[in-house]
Structure formats: structure tokens, C-alpha cells
Amino acid sequence: MAHNHNHSHDHNHNHGGHSHGIPADGNFGKAFGWGIGLNLVFVVAEAASGFWGNSAALLSDAGHNLSDVLSLALAWGAALLAKRQASARYTYGYKSATIQAALVNAALLYAALGFILWETIDHLRHPEPVDGKLVMLMAGAGIVVNGFTAWLFSSGQKGDVNVRGAYLHMLTDALVSVGVVVGGALVYFTGWLWLDPIISFLILGIIAYGSWGLLRETVQLSLQAVPDGIELPEVRQFLLDQPGVTQVHDLHVWPLSTQETALTAHLVRPATSEDNQFLSHLQVELREHFNIGHITVQLEDTTPVPHEDGCQGCVAAQQSVAAAG
């Protein structure tokens, strides 16, 4: 049985998969540079102060800030890699590097938390005098450095998991630094040495809790799950509601990167002379309703016959029509 297969490919690369204001691999280049430079200097200063002042809280904060430097570097590198053109081998380009970087960053974060937890337990078992003034001074500097870095990424944190990861890490660090200042003051005025590791435990808990959503999302993206914010049944129903469509099958939605989403589907619909117009309209509507910018739609004018391998409608195309981009 022959079928009329119409394909619609929207390869507009203006990050149409998600409606973002500014792409992370463009205008956020300076933000990544500033963030990495400032935090690297601060990590060295904070770690030295932690050893000098015997502060587990400062050391734990320095360790987390170091993971943030690695996170920013990986995110920046992946964003730059994603700008490379597609090739005969990598036909989608290198956009998925942003997903891999986000996953590695999440793994590095929790590995760092485990190491810091071990150090904090050791400090709790063997408490030593803490320089409260030094702790407050360095944590105060951390509020400024991390707060400023978070601000650099604030305008794009809703659009890209890489940028959001940088923003959340920096914002969390700024808030945690506030807690360290308070803890340093308490240790200074009360002399209770056990407060410092307790504050470190609280810091670790806040970071682990605040980063869980990022870890969950990056794992989902790496497994090509339907991105957050898109419900597949709603997409299916939307396609069924289109003029003339009687069936939808072989529907797939997956992330091309942390910014772009793709869709493929077979629609059973009587062939008409207005197929081009239908595909163009569908392209626009999917972008507006679901933020899906890369679509491939195959139209079939009769119900497809299932093949032995489970694929439906896998007959060679008689006609292909590309919708306007």
C-alpha cells in the first residue's frame, strides 16, 4: 500500500526549542569569564583562610566554590562547542554537549559534597579554635562575589539549564555565605566550637537539596526524556485537533540540547492541495504552544499497516514537501 508522506522540517536555529531571551553561548560569554575568574581567586583566598582559621565552614564553602568554577568552565566550553556547525558525522551539530556538561556538573557537585561531608565530620570529632573574625570577613566577601556572579546570569536563567545551573549555584552560595557570617559571629561571641561544623552540615544540606532538581533534570535530558514543561498527551491531543487529522502515531519529543527540543510524528490526514500551508501553520503553532522548534511531520492519507519491526508507515515516500522555515 502506498502512502503520501509529507515532511515538515523546521531547522530555524534561533533557539526556538525554548523561548529564551539570550542564548548562553552568545551574550553570556563574558559572564562565564567573569564568573570563573572571580570565583577562582575567591576559592584560593577562602581555602587559605579556612586552613589558617581552622574553619570547616569556610573549607566546605571553598570546596563548593571550586566545584562552581569547574561547573562554569564546563558549561562555557559546552556552550562554545554547541556553536560548531553540523557535519556529515554529527548531523545535529554538537548541541547535546550542553546536556552532557550539565550532567557532569551535577555529578561533580555531589562528589564534592561527599568529600566535604567527610572533612566536616572529622572537624566535629576533633574541634579546634576558630578565627571568627576571619570567617566573617571571608564569608562577607563571598556574598559580594557570588551575588555579583549570580546577577550576571539572572537574565538567562529561565531559558537554559546550563545558565540556570550557574545562576542557582551562585545564588545559593551567596545565601550560604550569609549563614556563614552569622555562624562566625556566634562562634566569636559564644566560643562554641561545635557550631562551626554544625553550620557546615547545614550548608551541605542546603546545597544538596537545592541541587537535586538540577540533577534530576540533567539525567532526564541525557536520557532524551520529554523536557520539563511539555506534556506528551497534550501534544498528541493538539495534533489530533488539527484540521483533518484522524490519527497520530510514532510521536516522539526529545531534547536536542539544553535549549532546543525536537518532535517527530506521523499524522493520518486526507491529502489536499493545502498540505504546505498546513505544515507551515503546524510549525508555528507547535512553537507557540509547546516551545518545540525542530519538527518533522509525516502526513499519511490512509491508516498505515504495521510492519513486523513495529514501524508504521515505513513505505518509501512518494512526495516530500518542506514547510517554510
Automatic annotation (TrEMBL):
Keyword Ion transport recorded: yes
Major subcellular site: membrane
Pfam families for the chain: Cation_efflux (PF01545), ZT_dimer (PF16916)
TM region positions: 31-52, 102-121, 133-154, 166-188, 194-215
Residue intervals of the Cation efflux protein cytoplasmic domain: 227-301
Membrane topology recorded in Swiss-Prot or TrEMBL: Multi-pass membrane protein
Location in the cell: Membrane
Gene3D superfamilies: Cation efflux protein transmembrane domain
Family label: Belongs to the cation diffusion facilitator (CDF) transporter (TC 2.A.4) family. SLC30A subfamily.
Protein name according to UniProt: Cation transporter
